[in-house]
Design brief:
Layout (H helix, E strand, L loop, with lengths): L18 E6 L3 E6 L1 E5 L6 E5 L4 H15 L1 H14 L11 H14 L19
Antiparallel strand pairs: 1-2, 3-4
């Protein structure tokens, strides 16, 4: 922009990537991007290393923390978790029809299913 005035702008960090380096049994030292949950041996402390996770990873991360931090109580919570997350513990290949139905419900809820037009998308003629 040739006419841009530098006084109208400020520098900000637009995003960041974090690299986690760890030793994995049988694989040696590996590097990866993203987030890593680290929990103390007795589960009394959990930390999230890396950049802030997005919504796609947050549920998985909190389940990992709950499982690692409360192993004895976690089994008691599984019934409630399945009520909140119907697919929790289910493998798509174990019941392909149910996995397909979950996918259809999710697509409908997110308005990704283009075979049904959401009511919010009905358009009227523009005002004249």
């Amino acid at each position: 922009m040739p006419d841009a005035d530098p006084a109208d702008w400020e520098w900000i960090t637009a995003g960041q990537r974090v690299q986690v380096v760890k030793t994995v049994k049988g694989k040696g030292t590996i590097a990866g991007f993203g987030t890593e949950v680290v929990t103390s041996g007795d589960g009394s402390l959990a930390a999230l290393l890396g950049a802030s996770p997005g919504a796609s990873a947050s549920v998985c991360i909190i389940l990992d923390v709950l499982h690692a931090s409360f192993p004895k109580r976690f089994a008691q919570w599984e019934y409630a978790l399945r009520g909140m997350i119907p697919s929790y513990g289910a493998e798509p290949q174990d019941d392909p029809a149910e996995a397909s139905e979950r996918w259809r419900r999710m697509a409908r809820a997110l308005h990704l299913d283009r075979t049904e037009k959401p009511e919010a998308e009905t358009h009227s003629a523009p005002p004249s």
